[in-house]
Amino acid sequence: xxxxxxxxxxxxxxxxxxxxxxxxxxxxxxxxxxxxxxxxxxxxxxxxxxxxxxxxxxxxxxxxxxxxxxxxxxxxxxxxxxxxxxxxxxxxxxxxxxxxxxxxxxxxxxxxxxxxxxxxxxxxxxxxxxxxxxxxxxxxxxxxxxxxxxxxxxxxxxxxxxxxxxxxxxxxxxxxxxxxxxxxxxxxxxxxxxxxxxxxxxxxxxxxxxxxxxxxxxxxxxxxxxxxxxxxxxxxxxxxxxxxxxxxxxxxxxxxxxxxxxxxxxxxxxxxxxxxxxxxxxxxxxxxx
Length: 289
What we know:
Largest sheet: 7 strands, mixed, barrel
Strand order of the largest sheet: 1-4-3-2-6-5-7
Radius of gyration: 66 Å
């Protein structure tokens, strides 16, 4: 009887705490409550709550928490403590409640009293995490399949359009190729006739002769220009003398035609200007009839 009383916790001082839950899955009466791995209480009851405005259902679990540890020290849960529902093992559906203390603690921080309510969250198990991953992968694979289907549809439309375009262009391409073939045949025939007539050789010979004639003319022009530059003064004097001689001869012929007796009396020469040449007046012998 003493061992039964010691293990059942009869005679221990306890107080009640409440936790809010979104789901009561795998929570039963006598579900264990732990603080950092040490059992400190049990769930005594679980009852639902219905929101009158939204008609949503939530749950509230009543916890029985020991006031002291086994060594007699008081168990004081600070304000900010939260509950977490965890799976006991990967092969079991049984759950437990872990009370998680806040990260920062100090002596002046308020503690939870009997009847207070704290929030609880459910930690995903390995199986739940695997299920979530599988669901996410399934969504991604489904999206990839949808995109692949859309891509294949666009490819099929493109191929069909290309086939229609090729069918429409085939007659035009064939006619164009036939026309090009006939044109190339005509060009080949014309080239053969021109090559057979020997026109390219005659044209080359003509161009070579023309080039030689142009070279000779260029050489002659250069020689004449050099000769003109060297004898410019003498050529000018010769031209002036020829001009004066022509004037004298014209004057003599005119006088003789009008007065034949000038053969006996002589003809008076035409006066010669003084600025006809740079070297002065021409010699007197140049102005005698």
